[in-house]
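Shift notes (night). Ran Thioesterase family protein while the centrifuge was going.
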Amino acid sequence: MYQQTLIAGWGDMDFNAHMRNTAYLDKSADVRMMYFAAHGFPMSEFARLQLGPVVMRDQIDYFRECQLLDEITVTLALAGLSDDASRMMLRNEFFREGALCARVTSTAGWFDLRQRKLAVPPPNLAEPLRALDRTEDFQVLPGSAR
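Came back to this:
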């Protein structure tokens, strides 16, 4: 399972002194992009191809608080994928001291920045996506490229 250890920082906190909801989304996106960079698809390649991920839906489930300077482990797994890899569901889970704190599930696709529409990713991007560990509730999604 791919994972990264991060810190709940000052800018991640809300008025209630725990990690704000948008910080979970930001850290999820960071871990996803770290995964692609570590698997041969750095940000420079996204820029060169004029291709990027576009999130269509996020769902966050909370279980425990994360507070300022907590060390958190964020995992990444594949919860769904279309046959052509144009559409995906990515799941990030947040752990503090081994306890599940939150789960972020995002439905996304690959967006062609030139044509301004969803696209099928190139094989060197689809390959690491398909290589992710799958969740127990993994589902095959319909393709969304036109």
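Helices lie at 21-38, 43-49, 123-131. The longest strand covers residues 99-112.
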